[in-house]
Amino acid sequence: MVEKSWASRLPKVQSKADQAYVSLRDAIAEGHLLPGERINMDELARNLGISKIPIREAVKQLESEGLVTARAHSGVVVSHVDEKEMRGVFLAREAIDGLVARLAAENADDRFLSDLDRAQDEMRGALRSGDTDELQRLNSAFHRYLAEASGYSILSELTEQLLLTIRRYRVTAPKDIGNWAAVIEEHDVIMDTLRRGDAASASEAAQAHTRSQAGHEVETPR
Fold it and tell me: pTM of the predicted model, to two decimals?
């Protein structure tokens, strides 16, 4: 048996900067911090029980990802996401989702399909109750499972980043409840191709799903 490297045996400890980053990223994604809103670093440091140094480190990372913007006279504010930029996000998603679905179809196993089935069943329940927050969470979970099944961490990371941007956009331009039924139906088509192990059709179905949602979200007048 090959001995694991010493680094792989070390316990994984989340730094204070990591904690601050995750807290801020989630607050932005869920709409607790709105576009244009100023981030009060003193208040955040008090709430998290840490100094401002890890807060600054977290803010630098968020700024590099385009989630916050440093302004000369107003400090650090949550960045806006405009419709033009969202078109680019959906173009990137179309390419990545097609690749992810193709690889997922090649790697599909019972556990993976079971995870997707569960997400779909729970989405149907959330649709019946009109719980848009839960629909959003489950939709992200569905696409996260697909990305993980691709077998490439870079595709999972790219998928996560694109999902985050879309979640931020929906804070100010929410998806109407009726379109969530279409999302579930489009997921069902993808699921059918995965069960058959049809990689080409899975890629086509995933790209069709992304184009459909792009048309609804960024090309239809609001």
Answer: 0.74
